[in-house]
Structures are given as C-alpha cells and as structure tokens.
Amino acid sequence: MFGVVRPCKHVLCGSLFKDWMAHLCGLCLTLRAEHGQAARLVTNYDGLLVSVLVEAQAPDLSPRRKAGPCALRGMKTAEVVSARAQGAQLAAAASLLLAAGKTRDHVADGDGPYARRLVAAAAGRVADRWDAAGGRTGASVGFDPSALRDAVARQPVLETAPGLGLLELTEPTETAVAAVFAHTAVLAGQEDNAEALAEAGRFFGRLAHLIDAVEDVTDDAASGAYNPLLATGTAPAEARRHAEDALHGLKLALADVEMENPRLVRALLGREVRRSVDRVFAAYPSGPGQQPPYGPPGQYPHQGGHPPQQGGYGGGWIPPGGGGGGPNYGHRPPDRRPGWPIPCLTGTVVCITCGVFQPEWSDHHGQSCTDRCWCTRHCDGGCDGCDCCNCCECCGCDC
User: Fold this and answer.
1) What would the DSSP string read from start to end of 90-110?
2) Structural domains in the chain?
3) Radius of gyration, CA atoms only, the chain
4) Which residues have CB under 8 Å from 334's CB, separation 6+?
C-alpha cells in the first residue's frame, strides 16, 4: 500500500489521533513480535487501515495493551493494539507481502541504488524473507496470500503491455487492496460486509495508485522511469477526474458497511483521503489557461525506463519550475521547493489550527471560519451545521 493516509495530531484531533497511533504502533510492534526488529521497516500508514477496519466492525477483537517508551513517540508509553489482535496480524501480513513486491519491482527496474548488483542481490533476499513471513502470518488468520502475490506479479506484466488504459494499470492494486479489506469482514465475523468492503478496497487501491503516480510523475519524467500517467498520456484533469470518481465510490461503498464504531474509518477514508487528493493535484491547476507547460509528444525522456505507450509527457504533468508546484500548492508545500523551511513552518501552523489559519497563497485565505476549517470543509453535509471553531473534537460528529 501507499502513503495516502498521513494525518497529524491536530488534523485528527483528540481521541481519534490517539486511536490512530494505537493502530500504527500496534502494527509496528506486531511486526517486531512476529518477525523481528528488521520487519518493522515495512510499517506504513495505509497498512494500519486493515487493523482499523477490523476494530470498527468488532471493537472487542482489538484488545489494547500498554507499550513501553519508544523514541518515535518521544520516549513516551502508549496504549497500542495488541499483537494478538487478528486485525493487526492481517495488517502485518499485507504490509510484508506488498513491501516484498515493491522491493522486487525496484530491483527489476534497477531504480537508484538497486542498479548496483550487490544492492539488488541483498534487496532480493530481503524481499524473499518478507514474502515468506507475510505468507505465514496471513495464513495464520485465514488469509490467502496468493491474492496479493498474484496482483503484485501481474503489475510489471501490464506495464510492458502496449495500449493499456490507466484503469487497466491500476487494476492489480485495486484487486490486492479489495482482497485485504474484504477479509477484515471475515475476521470481524461480519461476512455481510465483505462485498461492500471489497468495493471500498478497489476504490482505495485506485486512489493509492493514482496518488503515488502523481507524487512521482515529475521525477519519473526526468529520469525516464515508468509512470502510468506518462505511459498512458493521461492529462492532469483526466487523472483528477478518476480520483474524484474513486472518492465518490469509496464514500458510497463505506456507507453500506455496518460498523459499531465508524468514526476513525470515516476520518481516515473520508477526510484524510480527500486531503491527500487535494494535496497532490494542487500543483496542477485545471482551469482554462492554467495548464502547466509540457513537452510535445515524442519528447518523453526514457533513459532506461519504459517508453510511453500513448505519447508525450501525459498532457501537462510538469508543473511550473520543474517540480514542486506554484504558489497555490495549498496546505502542504512540496518537499523540494526552494526555501522550504518557511513554507514548512506555515504548513505546520495550518495543521495545528485545523486549517483555520491559511497563508496568503492558499485558495481558502480570507474565507469564513467554516470554509477554512478542514473538519467542516470535508464533512460532506454530515455535521448538521456544526463547525470546528466552536465545537472541536473533530466537530463532535462522525464525519
């Protein structure tokens, strides 16, 4: 999985952030308990969604325990999801299997340091260990690891096939995430939720693949590495449309899932996924006359990467200045933007205030409190008019 859901403390607020950290630390410690310290390297933000989904459907199946001090928590103790929880074990299995697949993909493509023979050989052995470990843990909770292995193996085959569309290239990711999401219903004893969760997983997998591609598109264009947006000639506006369709589908699918405690699921798979989409597409304005400059068809650099299948830079994927976006980038400035410490500090202030403070270059600067606040801006009408300015704890609602 990818880093789609990356909230900070003051975006989630209060108890929701505490619950999110319980699942994140629980996943990390489950990997350590089951497979040793090195396995903790595959801990990722999106993998913990599996644990969150199991707890949302059956809270009693995710017991908590007190974990000792950790450097990543400022040497503080914390209540975390126990390694005995099947949701945490499924999350660990999925993280290991997908990390193994992605490592093998880097080795096959010879990306960066993986182009060196010794590095590639060592990475390949690590990937084999992760794959075996993920298979064992998945089998222990009744999950068939072949669902993920087959999807991961199919991805490079599709990338070398000519003439495929963007959604055909995202299919393996969609299938893999759908299988994991659906199995959370089995673990929770809520089999009636499996179909809706599989549908939610497909849409989330599509979003994850798209967001990953958008984040990498500038670097991939410069280096010639494979990128589905460039390979299919997908313009930013079309990619954004696919993302918006997936967001809508994800919301409808989750509405059909019966959950005892849906607040964290709705926050992560609703508001936070929306923020991720807004963030990555902010560098690519879609209005008339706002499309960034790009090279004509046939000028896609492919020094070792896969050549484009449908021509060009993909209809305008190079943002002004080459990488990082213009002044309307939004709440989270690009990592490589010149003079990044000042924008980064501004983004921190925005985050701490739930978006109520907005810098001058933000599209929301000067708007009302409700329009500036993340919590109310992404409630989708489910807050009954409340706003973060006078009743926080994420609006005190389930949005």
Assistant:
1) HHHHHHHHHHHHHHHHHHHHT
2) 9-326 (1.10.600.10), 332-399 (no CATH)
3) 21
4) 283, 323, 324, 325, 340
Backbone angles phi, psi at 224, to 5 degrees: 85, 10
Please give the Cα distance from 7 to 20 (Å, whole number): 9
User: In the numeric block, which tokens belong to residue 236?
Assistant: 């930013």
Q: How far is CA 229 from CA 169, 275, 301, 313, in A?
A: 10, 21, 14, 8
Return the residue matching tokens 């599989």.
198
Question: Are 303 and 109 within 8 A, CB to CB?
Answer: no
CA distance 185 to 83: 19
Task: Say what the pLDDT of residue 336 is.
Answer: 35
Show the tokens assigned to 289: 């006359």
Contacts of 291 (CB under 8 A, 6+ apart): 235, 236, 237, 284, 285, 316
- Give pLDDT tens digits for 88-102: 999 999 999 999 988
Rounded to whole angstroms, the Cα distance separating 395 from 386 reads: 6
Contact of 197 with 54, CB cutoff 8 Å = no
321 Rama sector, left if φ>0, alpha if ψ -120 to 50, beta otherwise:
left
Tell me the backbone φ, ψ of residue 66, rounded to 5 degrees: -90, 125
Shortest CA distance to 203 belongs to which of 168, 167, 254, 247?
A: 247
Amino acid identity, position 266: R
Residues in the chain: 399
Q: What parts of the chain have a pLDDT lower than 70?
A: 1-13, 286-357, 359-361, 363, 365, 368-399
Question: What pLDDT shows up at residue 13?
Answer: 65
Confirm if 334 and 320 have CB atoms less than 8 A apart. Answer: no
Distance CA 124, CA 93 (A): 18
Instruction: State pTM to two decimals.
Output: 0.74
Is residue 326 within 8 Å of 320, Cβ to Cβ? yes
Which residue type is seen at 232? T
